[in-house]
Design a protein that fits this description.
It is built from five helices and no strands. The chain has helices at 3-23, 28-40, 42-82, 88-140, 144-186.
């Protein structure tokens, strides 16, 4: 594998590692700190810029690898139409060229595809974190109407508790009065 395809492979492995970091289940506070670091760090911004430039070169490599694959396929069709493969070495050479061309297309194609998936997953997780923060802030910093509603609910709970206590007291008195009345009837 040539140097630039080795670099593309390293980039693919790096993308897979970053994807795993994005999807690993973390507590909300740790995930928020991680994404805050990724969003605000200047070092990460410079690396991101360099990686985006690299993807332009990967796209060029993809186009080149695709053209080579098509060229190898066309050469095989020409060779088969003329006389076919005459010896084992030419057939092996053709299969090796075809394998390398297809490998390079797949390598660069998967790298480009995973970069799109990685960018979309990052934005979705970032949106999720923002939505969770908004939800937490709306619960913690309730509006005055919500606070008034909560006060009313607390007041109602106290009233229900007091009424339950009064009902229990009155039902106990009624039971005692019935017991006294039934005892006097039998005397």
């Amino acid at each position: 594998m040539t140097l630039y395809y080795s670099i593309v492979f390293a980039l693919l492995v790096f993308e897979m590692a970053m994807f795993m970091v994005l999807i690993v289940p973390l507590p909300f506070s740790a995930r928020r700190k991680l994404f805050q670091f990724l969003a605000t760090s200047e070092v990460v911004a410079k690396i991101n810029y360099g990686v985006r430039i690299t993807f332009i070169f990967v796209a060029v490599l993809f186009i080149d690898a695709f053209q080579r694959m098509m060229k190898v396929s066309a050469e095989s069709h020409v060779a088969q139409e003329n006389q076919g493969f005459t010896d084992f070495r030419s057939e092996s050479n053709y299969h090796a060229k075809k394998f390398y061309a297809q490998r390079n297309v797949y390598l660069t194609g998967f790298t480009l595809f995973l970069s799109l998936i990685l960018a979309r997953t990052y934005s979705l997780v970032l949106d999720l974190i923002n939505a969770q923060e908004e939800l937490a802030s709306s619960v913690d910093g309730a509006s005055p109407e919500d606070k008034q509603y909560k006060t009313q609910v607390d007041t109602l709970k106290k009233q229900v508790e007091q009424q339950q206590q009064e009902y229990n007291r009155l039902s106990d008195e009624l039971a005692q009065a019935k017991a006294q009345v039934s005892d006097k009837k039998f005397d």
